[in-house]
Design brief:
Layout lengths: L1 H16 L7 E7 L7 H5 L9 H14 L4 E6 L5 H6 L5 H8 L3 E8 L8 H13 L3 E5 L3 H4 L9 E6 L8 H18 L5 E6 L21 H4 L41 H6 L1 H41 L1
Parallel strand pairs: 2-5, 2-6, 4-5
Antiparallel strand pairs: 1-3, 1-6
Family: Belongs to the BIG1 family.
Protein name: Protein BIG1
InterPro entries: Big1 (IPR037654)
Length: 314
Amino acid sequence: MHVSWWILVPLSFVLADFPVSLGSVPAVLYSHKLCPGLLDYQSNYDESTTLPLSSFVEVAEKLISNRRSDAFVFVNIPGLTVTDFTIYRNILGSLEYYVSKSSTALRFERVEPSSQKNDLFDELIFHATEEWEIEDHIVVNGNHTETFERYIDWRPRTIRIDFDTVPLVNRREYFVYCDKIIKHVLGQLPSAEHTMILTSLSLPPTQVESEAGLGTLRIFPDVFEDPERSSDNEKNHQNVLNNLGFNEFRPKFSGIADEHLSVFDPEFLSRHYHILELVMVTTIGYIGLQLFLLLRARNTRTAKEKISAKKKQQ
């Protein structure tokens, strides 16, 4: 026991200073509409420490209660690490896009994981259900594209997406699939007004990637370090409900302009000179032809009358 003590003591100090905490999970929360006051939680967060689970639940519940959304989306990526947001950032393009378009967004690189006995998402879904009297719930898992049922009505819903545990190998293909499913589900929503909470409900089985040499790991730094996000700013003012109604009447034909037209107008003559020339030549030619035929017919009739008169005299 004496030898074991001297081995465990320095080992504990090494683990305490290790930059990667296997006892935490990352989390991203955002709302399409502005939720005033939530940025204080982001400002007070120290990324070098682990956010207690109770504090995270408090933030998530305030995000849900602050603003009614047409859809509350809960995404569980078991085994997700903060390293994945750095290594596979380009692959998670759809997720980053939706976060960038939101009016309120929060990131926590290290959050205390929930216990296996209590499902965190079940608690948050229950909170959303009670807060906004939600009756419709969608669970997407397994074959995600088939289990998600598209809807077109405006009743609020909770949508829970559960992915398989992040594999130890082929992680790139895994996150390509996750980003594809997130884009598919959000793209099918009848309204852009949604709230998302994305995290891992379980710790990774092992340390998959080493974070040494990657510097300070932050989730989507280009999005969250935008100066406009330092204060509450509504980025999505438009309201679909306010845009309903008839379109403004726009006639296809505005009518004839009240202008005096003249054949002797210099601009008219210059623009249509060749057409007028052709009309005049055709008209003169037609009149000349008709006069020629008329005179010819008259001469023929006169000649016949003379012949008939001679025959009668004989």
